């Protein structure tokens, strides 16, 4: 009996958006209008690439970025929840699927000593170039019309489950914890045995309830959370069963 926990990162594990938080490193803690206005829907990764060039051009170095990123607050109750999961790894496999990037997530998890809770992190690959600029790439290519160009979380989840199955691992239940519009695609892939946990008041919760109103509800159960304490309570019940 093993459960798979799938976490989004921004506004789920941390209580902010890591990509917009980095702007605190910019001169006057803001971006020029022309850069801000250059974002095109579905092309966030390209936009962040331009943000990182701007920061590099303004002499923002890796250590300053790291110091800034590790001040991001975790969502209420999240440290306790992840501690609990870490103590019960024989029952829980735990992955992150995020539209952030490997550098940010790595910094934040390691600073809080939480990286070992997660079996795998699926996010956009990032690295510092020889000139000290942060660069970011698309996670993968996909054909899903619903998702941003760089990442379809359903595809990630499907491929992970297939790979696990090949190694003889199947899950009693998948628990998907997220908040954003790009979490809807993987939630629609879940079956009636699984559970989606959208964050209260965020886009994912609104989209799931719109589907229910248009009589095409998601197949899985839905349990809304406002702090990670709600998620922890559910996991404790799950283990008792």
TrEMBL record:
Residues annotated for Mg(2+) binding in this entry: 8, 10, 179
Catalytic site positions: 8, 10
Residues that coordinate or bind substrate: 19, 99
Keyword DNA damage: no
Pfam family, one: Put_Phosphatase
Keywords: Hydrolase, Magnesium, Metal-binding
One annotated GO molecular function: phosphatase activity
Necessary cofactors: Mg(2+)
Domain of life: Eukaryota
NCBIfam families: DKMTPPase-SF, HAD-SF-IB
Similarity comment: Belongs to the HAD-like hydrolase superfamily. PHOSPHO family.
Name assigned to this protein: PHOP2 phosphatase
Species for this entry: Mohoua ochrocephala
Gene transcribed to yield this protein: Phospho2
């Amino acid at each position: 009996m093993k459960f798979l926990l799938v976490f989004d990162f921004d506004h789920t594990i941390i209580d902010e958006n890591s990509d917009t938080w980095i702007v605190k490193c910019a001169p006057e803690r803001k971006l020029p209008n022309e850069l801000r206005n250059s974002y095109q829907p579905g092309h966030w990764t390209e936009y962040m690439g331009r943000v990182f060039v701007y920061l590099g051009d303004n002499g923002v170095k890796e250590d300053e970025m790291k110091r800034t990123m590790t001040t991001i607050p975790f969502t209420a109750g999240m440290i306790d929840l992840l501690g609990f999961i870490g103590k019960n790894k024989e029952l829980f496999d735990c992955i992150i699927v995020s539209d952030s990037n490997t550098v940010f997530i790595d910094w934040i998890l390691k600073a809080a000593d939480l990286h070992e809770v997660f079996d795998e992190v699926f996010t956009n690959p990032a690295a510092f170039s020889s000139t000290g600029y942060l660069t970011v790439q698309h996670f993968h290519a996909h054909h899903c019309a619903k998702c941003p160009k760089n990442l379809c979380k359903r595809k990630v989840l499907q491929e992970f489950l297939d790979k696990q199955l090949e190694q003889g691992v199947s899950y009693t239940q998948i628990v998907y914890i997220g908040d954003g519009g790009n979490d809807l695609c993987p939630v629609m892939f879940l079956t009636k045995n699984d559970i989606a946990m959208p964050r209260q008041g965020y886009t994912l919760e609104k989209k799931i309830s719109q589907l229910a109103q248009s009589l095409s509800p998601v197949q899985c159960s839905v349990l809304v959370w406002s702090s990670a304490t709600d998620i922890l309570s559910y996991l404790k019940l799950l283990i008792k069963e």
